[in-house]
Amino acid sequence: MRMKIRKSIGVIGTLGAMAFTMLAAQSQAANVTPDVIFGSGNANGSFTVDQGGSVELGLRAKQRYPAANIFNYDGTDTYTFEVGSATASSRPNWNFEWSINSNFDGGSTNDLNDLVYQLKLDTDPGAGILFTTWDPVNGVPYADHAIGTNATGNGGGTVAADATEYGSLIGSNNVAQNSWASHWFDGLFDPNAAGTYRIELLAFADGGVMLASTGINVVVSAIPLPAALPLYGAGIAVLGFLGWRRKKQIS
Predict the structure, then answer these.
(1) Which are the contacts of 69, defined by CB distance < 8 A and separation ≥ 6?
(2) Could you tell me the CA-to-CA distances from 13 to 9, 16, 168 in Å, in that order?
(3) What is the reported pTM?
């Protein structure tokens, strides 16, 4: 699902700032409530999630090419992908997905448009952080988010046909989600460049009180670690230990 990202670059770019955000404690390796409601065939899980004040926020990165429910997740907040592309169009191998639920536990009356959100995208692959920040729900007149309630099933979100319907949906529902390809932001940064990219999602009540926040690191590696290499190293260590014991017993 795609918002008009490139047309919005001039607007959201003015909100960019170099900053670190102090985030609240986060649940790990969690599902989002009620499920993944965008697209079809998208599994729940491997989100980095925070819950507070009846608000639930989730972020995850995901393999885009070839499309699969593969997250390369460390179980805490980091997702790792190989630099480069699996397609002839040189599109990067990864995308990121976000979920906002303004009333995940039924403990409030907040619809989506009752709160303020910040999505912060780091465009610096180096050690520094250069955030571009915008409100993905209320900061745009229209977006093709999947929108629903706590009763919406997997893939069952509603996508507004126009700005009028979009305004109505965010004023009467509590869940918004989307899946964004990193190359849609190529006017801001090169998602194929090796490095580490920070993405954060925050929710605020009236008066600027932060209710929940979550953040992930996306590592784009120029030299991927083969999956079998750690097992190989462990095997060598075990063989060395057994050889040492045998030699000691013989002596």
Answers:
(1) 41, 42, 43, 62
(2) 5, 5, 27
(3) 0.81
